[in-house]
Amino acid sequence: MQELEQKLEAELNENPALERLAPDEIPLTEREILRNLAPRELKPHGDDRELWRSLPTDDVTPSWIDLASSETTLHEYLSAQLLPQLSEDLRRAGEFAIGCLNENGYLYEPVEEIALGGNCSIEDAEYVIAQLKKCEPAGIGASGIQESLLLQLREVDTLEGKIARKIVRDHLDLFTGGKRMKLARRFSVTPAVINEVFDLVMGCVPFPGDAFRPSSQSHEARLPAIQPDIVLTRSEFGWEVSVRGPSASEFCVNGYYKKRLEDLQQQAKVDKDERRHLVHFTGRAADLIECLEQRHRTMMRVGQYLIEKQAGFVSTGDVSFLMPLTRTQLAHDIDIHESTVSRATQGKFVQLSTGETVSFEVFFKPALRIQKMIEEILATENPDNPLSDERIAKILADKGVHVARRTVNKYRDRTKLLSSRKRRSA
């Protein structure tokens, strides 16, 4: 992306017919207009989080959030709870579901995708999701803030608890608007009861995954050091592909050059040198803008293809869900020349829905997948009883990756990992 910016700056300096619009002059695209007009009724955002946290509460009892260890990741915390409850044939689905959780602890992946990624039936996937929603922290695995609150309130078997669930389910707009008297009249209870209900709901945690974020890190600090060229995200509204970097809408052909060229085309006698100058530079500007538009279209199609063909990996960041893929296959499937795909992806990066940024090479080099899986297996082995290459090959086979023992040895040597005998002595 930096290389592209440098080329654009050079062209702006050399081409008087090319202009870059100021940020407030860039027209909104149809997609951006629709996004701005889309309903955001329960969609969580930063301001909401601060509002929820600032609400008063008299609850002095320490919650699981206060006791959660900052050393433990959300994935590890949930795996320890969920996987032992599942049969062996459903643990892959459990791992996939946990991997699909976003940083808030919400699960936007539809049950059909969980079934596909976990290689199980839809009924089994529904069971896995239901078990996940029973795990701590309460509210985990919800499809959004409303369900998360309902999950946290489901065990409160009091009058206030029943009213709280009904308010969250059917009258959340009145709750967020602070309409206490209106709610008291609606449920035929005293204001004191409604006050208790408000305290109960405000004691919930709208974002159950928050406790596992490093509290010392700001949002900016969590941004990847390497800027991605495309960002793949899933929200309650579905998948979205965002192409980063300069776009065609930021540039235009200089108005004077365009108007002067149009005037010359209407004149019988023209200055040939002036006409040649105008045609050359306006043509260069128009070609560059078209190239930027073509880049955007290509990257959008590549991103959509990765979501379709590599949904497991894009959703979880787990290399065990990565499917074999070549640039040739991708080019054929989206009907683009292979050289175009190569130029669009070479040295470029993708941000997965987990927030992790990876190189495009991860999708096209199967060896990287196997090496990464071997590293992860060795990272969790018992140092007093290290795994042999044969045992590693068996673990990989259980994950659907069939390689020979000598192949494990080759990949281990390539990544400078010691043999089991040397790892034991180390």
Structure explained in plain terms:
With 426 residues, the protein is mainly alpha-helical. It folds into 3 domains: 2-25 and 225-363, no CATH class; 41-219, no CATH class; 366-425, Arc Repressor Mutant, subunit A, CATH 1.10.10. Helix content is 54%, strand content 6%. It has helices at 2-14, 30-37, 46-54, 64-67, 74-82, 91-99, 111-118, 122-132, 145-153, 159-170, 172-176, 180-186, 191-202, 255-266, 272-309, 311-316, 327-333, 338-345, 361-364, 366-379, 389-398, 405-414, 420-425, and strands at 18-20, 230-235, 238-243, 251-253, 349-351, 357-359. The strands form 2 sheets. The protein has a 4-stranded mixed sheet with strand order 3-2-5-6. The protein has a two-stranded antiparallel ribbon with strand order 1-4. A hairpin with a 5-residue loop joins strand 5 and strand 6. Helix 7 crosses helix 8. The radius of gyration is 28 Å and the shape is flat. The two termini are 43 Å apart.
